[in-house]
Amino acid sequence: MYARRIHKIASAVVCAILALARGTYTAQTAPQSRIMRAQQQTTSGRATFESTCAACHGLDGQGGERGPNIASRREVLRLSDSELLKILHDGIPSAGMPPFASLGSAKLAALVAYVRTLQGNGKVVAIPGDPQKGKQLFFGSSRCSECHMVRGKGGFVAADLSHYAATLSLPEIRAAITNPGIDSPQRSTLIAVILHNGQVVEGVIRNEDNFSLQLQSLDGTFHLFQKSDIAKVEPHAQTLMPSDYASTLTAAQLDDLIGYLMTVARETKGASSGKPNWEDDD
Length: 282
Prior knowledge:
Elements: H1 2-57, H2 74-77, H3 81-90, H4 105-118, H5 131-139, E1 149-150, E2 153-154, H6 170-178, E3 189-195, E4 200-208, E5 212-216, E6 222-226, E7 230-239, H7 245-248, H8 251-272
């Protein structure tokens, strides 16, 4: 009898400890799960925005030739999430905006969440490193400016990075620098166009049809060739985006470079909203 009673008490204690452990584990992991879901939603929303909305509204949401500013325009900022969701779902036919109901509720919700980050409603992330040192790297030893432009200065053949870091997380920016994807625009391969007369011009293909090919060389000059004049088109072994930054830059230098890109993105967004810049690029 006594042994059974001790056994019951011990079992009750073990159950209580397990229940407490489960509760503690749930309390610790629940916020992490919410953060992960929020990050996944933002990633999904960004992908949908870039593939569906950016052509009209710009990658940063500041507007383009065919779509208005939805990042800082006062009328848009005043819309509730449900109102914004309805616009995305139904479209605005009178303004030339098509409906996107076919995306489904999950993608539309993620799209709304991402638009809010463009509007500055997301969590402000601390800028890493020393942006001034990052600027020196960008225009100096890292040679980023040979291809990329920032606020009107730099190269022409790769993407303008003035807004690039505005909507990306630190890990995403770091990964884009140290391990650019094979399909990334930064990984564009240089092309050598060899003409029948022996002339060779290297650059990036910008336009091509059945009869002609347009190439932009590293100095920004556009070259238009008739295909009847081209003897051969060969991909260059070199890609625009170096793949060895993970080894050629230290962790501190990567932080400096990321900090510079983030600072530029915030300044550019502030300038478009009428706010003063942190500094002028000399």
